[in-house]
Structure formats: C-alpha cells, structure tokens
Amino acid sequence: MYLPGHPKYTLYHMVSLTNKRILLGVTGGIAAYKSADVVRRLRDAGAEVRVVMTRAAAEFITPLTMQAVSGHPAHRHLLDAQAESGMGHIELARWADAVLVAPASANFIAKLAQGLADDLLSTLCLASGAALAVAPAMNRQMWDNPATQANLATLQKNGVRIFGPGSGAQACGETGAGRMIDPLELVTLTAAMFETGELDGLDVLVTAGPTWEPIDPVRVITNRSSGKMGYAVAKAAMEAGARVTLISGPTALAPPARVECLRVMTAQEMFDAVQARIAAANIFIGAAAVADYRPAQAAAGKIKKTADTLQLNLVRNPDILASVAARTPAPFVVGFAAETDDLERNAVAKLQAKHADLVAANLVGRPGSGFECDDNRLMLVEADGTVELPLLSKERAARELIHHIAVRYHAKNPAENPRLAHRQ
Fold first, then answer.
1. Do residues 259 and 245 lie in contact, with contact meaning Cβ atoms separated by under 8 Å?
2. Nearest alpha-carbon partner for 98 in 243, 195, 231, 242
C-alpha cells in the first residue's frame, strides 16, 4: 500500500480505483467543505462518483458545487418523483461498489447504528449490499461521548469500516480527536476496501474472451463475447490477493494491472496455454467463450464468393474445462455457462459432465446483461445447491463470485487458511 507522499501513490490509486463506483455521502458539519476535494481525489484515482447529501450538508456546501466536481447532480431527497423515474434510492444503492460517508456526523453515526432510514442517505446505507465506511467528523467532546463510542462499536461489529478521525485543532477552537482525515488518506483507505486478502498467496488461472477459429486468412468463426466478465474476474482475484494469470482470446480490453496476461487466438492455443500453466494453479476459472468447433482445415487464401452455398467441415475443439477437472490432483475448477434458455438445468448438466466444483451461469441473447453489456446476472451452481446473484455491474458480480469461490476453496482446503474456512 502506497501512502500519501510516496512517489508511486498516484499510480497505485489509478490502478486500485479504476472503474470503481463510489457513492459519497455528505452529512452536516464544517468538514463538508473537504468533500469536494474527496470527490476530486476519487475521480483522479479512476473512480466514478455519485454524491448524496443530507439536508444539513447543504447548509455547509452547495449541491451545485458537488455536481460540478462529480459531474453528476447531487442526490438529496428520498421521496423525489423525478429521481425515482431514473435512478431511485434502490437503483443508486445497487449501483455502488462502495459507500463512503465523509464527513459522518455524530447524528448520522447514531442513526446508522440504530438502523434508521429517515432520509435518502440513511436509506441507501441500509439498502445497499456494498462495502460501507464512515469518516467521522465532530467536536472532540462529541467524539469522546460514551454514546458515540457505543454507536461506533455497533457499526464495527456490523462490518462498517471507521476511517479516522484525526486529531488536531478544530473549527470550534478546541484541540483533540474528531477531525475528518485528509482526503488523500480517505482515497487510500477506500482503495483498500477492495483488497480483501481472501486469496492471499494462491495462484489463479483465468481464461477470458472469445476464440477465433480461422476459415481463411480473412474470416473466422467466433462469438459475441467481449471478455469483460473474464477480465473483471481476473481483476477481482488480484484484489483478493492472488497471483493471477489471464489467458485471453482476442479482445479490445487492456489487461488488468498486476495481472499476467497471455494472448491467444484459437481454442487450441488457449488449450495449450492452459496446459502449460495449470500445474501451478490452485484455482482455475474458465470464463472464456471457447468455440466448440473449428474448421477441419483453414483455406490458404481468401475464399471467393463464386457459389450460392458454401460447406464447411467442422471438428471439435479440445475441452479445456473437462481436461483441467480431470487432472490429479485437480485445482478448484470453476466453469461458465452462457445459455439462452433452461439456465439452471443446463448449468447443472455442465457441472456434472465436466466434474467442476462450480458453474457460473448466465442468460445471454437478452438485453441488459451478458454479452456486450456492462452488467450481468449470475447463477452460481454447485453440487449442494444454487445461489442467484442480482443484476450487478460485471466488476461487482466478479467480486461477489470471487468471494464465493474463496469461501468454497478454503472450506475444501481448510489447512491453507483456517481464518477463512468457516466463512459462509
């Protein structure tokens, strides 16, 4: 972790928060003037930011200022008909990868500890499944008050991260604990929210993207996979602490930072690359949309349009997933199933036929998720049951999948990490 002042600080955060969706909550207090800088620093680090303000926050800093620095209108009202017709409180809660409340007043911390939902921000915090952090900012005596400390203890018990506070001169003229910490430090801590450590020290091999099977030097057999889901999975595994190798078919995507990326074109090339690397892998995730068949022989030159019909003889490509699962010993094997109908039935059939530990299935060919989209809805199918994830951004779906894989992997291999083996 690079801290403020380190020469690689900016580069690190451009890596860690790229494409992350951060919901910034602003509550009432003089420290609200720092929130504009928090937004700017988060965006400089590559995050997309939306701002939610309480009524008291708008007394200290204007919604127009927050709109200017975030590039989006600041959200303020829980029962706003116009907002509900676009991105209402539930949609906004689902949008966020992480929620950061900075500054968090003593009053808001108390509401959060008691589970109150009487305004937009408190409702969002209850409705969101994203990681939640608060950056307290208040007078030193309010900070030291036993009621405040009890509320903070409740939040920590519930998994809420507490960022700060700092100590020093306060706006009231007193000196002590209660200052909101520096915006750059908040960015550091926000980035760390995505570094789970669930796969620390493990080697993860991921395949992603389509394959291209040449018909001639110009034409190929392929599919509509963009590679976004597989790349997001590789990134999420890296953030969980794994050493990640990504074997990618042809895509227009830049490989995630801190991930080794090997480029291939055909299914056979992907098979060979997997076989060369699989012995070192603890976990294999086959997210690539691998062509089942290829032309028996590609033409040496471009096939000319001379006949009304053209017949291609196709042969089966090697089965990457089945070959990995058949190894002794085998890694923890995760396959993907892109289906157009009978999702669960087809996913169960694939799980059994390939002898995989887990199959992540999704419907494709429909608007809003799957191929060529930024969102996905995954069904996680295992021998002992099925878990359905809601519609999420592919990055967030990838993090949910990696968490699920980590829990299952450590349950299967408890000696490797007893701390995580019991998590459900």
1. yes
2. 195
What are 216-269's pLDDT values in tens digits?
999 999 999 999 999 999 999 999 999 999 999 999 999 988 899 999 999 999
Q: Establish how many alpha carbons lie within 13 A of residue 260's alpha carbon, considering only the half-sphere containing its beta carbon.
A: 9
378 near 404, Cβ under 8 Å? no
- Residue 129: domain span: 9-192
pLDDT tens readout for residues 341-353: 999 999 999 999 9
pLDDT value at residue 75: 92
Tell me the C-alpha distance between 405 and 382, whole Å. Answer: 11
- The crossing angle, in degrees rounded to 10, of helices 35-44 and 183-192 is 50
Number of domains in the chain: 2
Domain presence at residue 329: yes
360-389: pLDDT as tens digits: 999 887 766 667 788 899 999 999 999 999
Of 192, 223, 258, which one is at a domain's C-terminal end?
192
DSSP at 210: B
Measured distance CA(271)–CA(247) in Å, rounded: 10
The catalytic position among 125, 172, 261, 373 is 172
Are residues 235 and 380 located together in one domain of the fold?
Answer: yes
Query: Which residue, 168, 192, 216, sits at the end of a domain?
Result: 192
207 in the same domain as 177: no
**Residue 172 a catalytic site member:** yes
